[in-house]
Write a structure and sequence with these properties.
The structure holds 2 protein chains of 2 kinds. In chain A, α1 runs antiparallel to α2. The model of chain A has no long low-confidence stretch (mean pLDDT 88). Chain A has 3 helices and no strands. Chain A has a single domain, classed as Helix Hairpins, CATH 1.10.287. Chain B is an all-alpha fold. Chain B folds into 3 domains: 84 residues, NADH-ubiquinone/plastoquinone oxidoreductase chain 6, subunit NuoJ (Four Helix Bundle (Hemerythrin (Met), subunit A), Up-down Bundle); 29 residues; 39 residues. Chain B contains 6 helices and no strands. The longest helix of chain B has 26 residues. Classes of the chains: A mainly alpha, B mainly alpha. At the A-B interface, α1, α2 and α3 of A face α1, α2, α3, α4 and α5 of B.
Chain lengths: 102, 180
Amino acid sequence: MLGPGIAWYLGVSAFLFGIGALGVLLRRNPLIVLLSLEIMLNGANLALIAFSRHAHNGAGQIFALSVMAVAASEVCVGLGLVVAIHRRRLELDVDSLSELRG
Amino acid sequence: MGNFLVWVVWIVAAFACLASAVGVVSFRNPFLSALALIGNLGSLAVLYLLVSAEFVAAAQVLVYAGAVMVMFLFVIAYIGPRQETPWAGGPTWQTAAAVLAAAAIFLEVIIAIGLKAGGRLAHTEHVNATFGSPGWIGRLFLTDHLLAFEITSIVLLVAAVGGVILGAHTHHAQDAEASL
C-alpha cells in the first residue's frame, strides 16, 4: 500500500470524532450541533473505510454507506425540528429548550 | 516517487480535513461553519480515494457535500445566520467539562489504537483493481448485505415522513404554539 499506513487514517478519524464531540458539547446553536454531529459520523466513517482496506473486506464500505444514509435521515429530521422551533418563535438555543428534561 | 506523491496528497488532505473541522466548531457565523464542513467533506473524499474506496468518495461528494449541505445552507438562510460566541456565554464549568470530555474521547481512541492494534496495522496487503468500484459495491449490496440495503430504504422513508410531519403547516399551528 502506497503512502501512510492505516494507523495514520485512524489518528485523523479519532481527531475528527473528538473535535465533533467538542462541538456537540460546547455549541448552543442546534444547527452547529447538527454540523458537529456530521463531523463525528464522518470520523467513524473514515475509520470504517480504513479498516475495510486493511482487512480487504467490503463490509466496512457497506457500513459506511449505510451510515451516510442514516446521517441524511438524521439531518432531515433535525432540520425539520429546527424549522419547527423557529416557526414557533422560540429561541434557538439548546440550553433554553429544556422542557423535555425529566 | 509514487509513494512520495501519495504522502504529499495525504498530508494536504488530512490537514485540510482537520483545519476545516476546527473551523466548523469555532466559527461564530453558522454560514461559515457550513461552508467549512463542505471543505471537510471534500478533503475526506480525497482520503477515501487514497484507501481505494472510489464509490464511497463519489457518494460522499454527491450526497453529503451536494444534497445534505445544500439543505443545511437553505435552512441557515431561512433562519438567518445568528452570531454566537463559541467559547463564552454558557457557564464556565460547562465549557471546561466539554473540552475535558472531548479530549478524553480523543485520547481514549488514540491509546486504544496504539496499544491494541499498533503492531498489526503496519502491513496492509495490496488489493485488486475492483476493490471499491461501483460494480463491486453493488454486488455486495444485493447479495451479502441485502438486509442492510432494505433497512436503509425503510429508514430513509421514515425520515422523509417525519420531515414532512415536522415541516407541514397545520391549521392547529397557532394552538400548538404554547405546547412546544
